Amino acid sequence: MQYTKLGNADLKVSRICMGCMGFGDAKNGQHSWTLDEAHSREIIQRGLELGVNFFDTAIGYQSGTSEQYLGRALRDFARREDVVVATKFLPRTQEEITAGISGQRHIEQMVNTSLKNLGMDYIDLYIYHMWDYETPLYDILDGLNRVVQAGKVRYIGISNCFAYQLAKANALAEKEGFAKFVSIQGHYNLIFREEEREMAKLCAEDNIAMTPYSSLAGGRLSKRPGETSKRLEEDSYARFKYDATAQQDQVIIDRVAELADKRGVSMTEVSLAWLLTKVTAPVVGATKLHHMEGAAKAVDLKLTAAEAAYLEEPYVPHKLVGVMAQNTPAAAKEQHVWSTGNQNIEK
What we know:
Helix content is 42%, strand content 12%. It is an alpha/beta fold. The strands form two sheets. An eight-stranded parallel sheet has the order 9-8-7-6-5-4-3-10, covered by helices on one side. Strands 1-2 form a two-stranded antiparallel sheet. Helix 2 crosses helix 4 (103-118) and helix 10 packs across helix 11. The protein is globular, with a radius of gyration of 19 Å.
């Protein structure tokens, strides 16, 4: 495993971040393919053995049970100071807004619940899961700064936002003397490269770490035609993101398979090796041991400039989908992809 600094943060992270959305009690989540605690622990332990020290979860994953599984496993298999734990919080609910709960109080409640779920005293990277158009930006930044000052959070990150929003937020934070966002977790992979238009340029200029999700496009960049999995079959959200462009994406996927055969490696290794040249640490979801093993191998695979160009050449612009397609003031009033009404917030 290789390690790097997380942007402007004093955090040393593995080049692969283990995504924990696949862990948690399926009864409390949106995904039938999530793993129970025993199998989640096996994958977390294997990740640690492979040198992974960076783990990403969220309070919205399976009603906090993903956080619980991760926290218990890390307590048993690692020293707290040796791992970097990221978790995410959701926007205020309509019920909270009606009740007059401020953005500051919402963040305090959310972070306290996540700390309880994780069984930890602090969170290394606390991520604003999606832009909240119903809450003033000042309130969000003030609330985040307060939990940083209280020692509950070391650094803050953001997810599912536009480049202008990140720039605006960090400018306001600098003006007010608040903690600034040190990372962005956006949707980025070989078949969805819209982050390259503006976000990647902003991050390069300001040394903001990119830790993208969906790094293998829900498994599409790791499987050959005809190969399937429970997640590919049942992940309706991933189908929503990729089915409309399946034909044009398949050209790139075929090139990944071709290059994998040529190099004698897996498609996972090729896809992630390409992404590792663009970002700090991709978030790689794992529901089987070999998922983490393939991701770890990708760190050592170096593509030539010609190989990278061959993979990139067929790309055509994609429309925004999923959370980002909803990321507008009007759409903010609609149902979020992850239900914001089932957060188990500690009152």
